[in-house]
Amino acid sequence: MRLSRYFLPVLKETPSEAQIVSHRYMLRAGMIKQAQAGIYSWLPLGYKVLRNIENIVHEEQQRAGHIPMLMPTLQSADLWRESGRYDDYGQEMLRITDRHGRDMLYGPTNEELITDIFRSHVGSYKDLPLTLYHIQWKFRDEVRPRFGVMRGREFLMKDGYNFDLTKEDALHAYNRHLVSYLRTYERMGLQAIPMRADSGPIGGEDTHEFLVLAETGESEVFYDSQITELKFGDREIDYDSHEECRAVLEEFTSRYARTDETHDEAVFAQVPEERRRTARGIEVGQIFYFGTKYSEPMGATVVDKDGNRVPVHMGSHGIGVSRLLGAIIEASHDEKGIIWPEGVTPFHCGIVNLKQGDTEADAACDAIYASLTALGLEPLYDDTNERAGGKFATMDLIGLPWRITVGPRGLKNGVVELTSRRTGESEELSPEAAIERIAQIYGKVSKG
Ligand code: 5CA
Question: Cis peptide leading into 9, omega within 30 of 0?
């Protein structure tokens, strides 16, 4: 993309309404614009990152064997009356009436709708196990929407639902989700720690929240510092293996890590003092096992091997897709702006032309742009007439992990500059070598 043709409305001033760094940078980098309290338009740059995050979530869900689908945002109140949650959910639920006077609602989550789909089409244990998921907008009329996309009223969530014959199978689905979430967050450059939590309005006995440690997080968390040393890394997991998934769950949940809702001082006191930590965290996902809480009242049953009708065991599993943008920025930024991890960056690298209009500099930039594009990479080429300082400031603000700087002086010596946004370190290289390096970083094979 050439910046002169893009829509990147960066702001020079820091918007006064933004209290935390991710919200400030998302506004300043022209990623979002508030439409109403807690409701945002996703401008091109923000939309690109949102899509990248969604793609990672899709890939990891499908790797774990979960099946994508799409349910609507508007739901019938009658379904929620069946589960008893229509009255329980309270003012967070946005209730709407259509022209026929029918009660509807903008879905805050989808347990009822998916259970209805399941009971309409599945009747035998032979069709199990089954896990369906979608990525769809949700609405919760939060009392205090704040911090930009972190606590929105309208927000994008991945929500998945497992249907199993037995509690043991459903717990395997729970463990499988935990494993897939560890992989998902690490691919986004995040460490998200599973912590014992409270199930709230979703209900159920087993639940873990995934928390990214950050001073601006809304949850207070208590943990054994050893847990921060655990990495999932690139291990291969057989998602069908109950043992392998359980072993990962045990490894990642055997140390003390809880949110304030389930924190127990007496148990925490058993952690050696030098390893006890109290901090704040951003909740980027939550997994639940709730047994037959929805299947029983809603009649979601299957015929088992002995011919008996039994309610299925269920769980639901959420990832805060839009919140993740904020969480990633809180975890990865400096005083100049955002620093995107390579896994989610909106553009793979920036190209800065120090002297727009200079024949050689223009030609060199065009050639680098064409080579990177041919490799399947997306550069953002600042081809505007802005002065160099302004171009650098914009690149630093929008946080592309790599920048190639091209100017007449360097070209005389046959070099361009390759700069890492994270370390700030620059290196002089031939244009070909710089392209080769970027190709390697993103796992593309350079033809050069
Ligand atoms: N039905 C279950 C799982 S599918 C569920 O709704 N879980 S949840 O309530 O924990 O939401 C899942 C994730 O959505 C949360 O972990 C959080 O990351 C994100 N989320 C929840 N509320 C908001 C909000 N107001 N703004 C942005 N993200 C939110």
Answer: no
Residues with C-beta less than 6 Å from any ligand 1 atom: 109, 140, 142, 151-152, 155, 157, 159, 202, 283-286, 316-318, 320, 322-323
pTM of the model: 0.96
Residue nearest atom 1 of ligand 1, based on CA coordinates? 109
Inter-axis angle of helices 431-441 and 359-374, to 10 degrees? 30
What pLDDT, on the 0 to 100 scale, is given for residue 198?
84
Torsion angle of C-alpha atoms 342, 347, 348, 349, degrees rounded to 10: -120
The pLDDT of residue 448: 52
Of 323, 324, 325, 330, best ligand 1 pocket probe by most atoms within 8 Å of the beta carbon: 323
Give a three-class secondary structure readout of 174-227: HHHHHHHHHHHHHHCCCCEEEEECCCHHHCCCEEEEEEEECCCCCEEEEEEHHH
Q: Two tokens at 168?
A: 């043991």
Q: Are 224 and 271 in contact (CB under 8 A)?
A: yes
DSSP reduced 3-state for 281: strand
Instruction: Find the 143 Cα to ligand 1 centroid distance in Å.
Output: 15
Per-residue pLDDT tens for 71-110?
999 999 999 999 999 998 999 999 999 999 999 999 999 9
Burial of 358 (0-12, 13-18, 19+ CB in 10 A): middle
Amino acid at 415: V
Q: What are phi and psi of 175, to 5 degrees?
A: -65, -40
pLDDT at 16 over 90: no
* pLDDT tens digit sequence for 389-420: 999 999 999 999 999 999 999 999 999 999 99
Task: Write down all domains in the chain, each with its CATH number in brackets.
Answer: 3-337 (3.30.930.10), 347-441 (3.40.50.800)
The angle that helices 167-187 and 44-63 make with each other, rounded to 10 degrees, is 140
Residue 388 alpha carbon to ligand 1 centre in Å: 42
Atom from ligand 1 closest to the CA of residue 111: 1
In the chain, helix, strand, coil percent, each to 5? 40, 30, 35
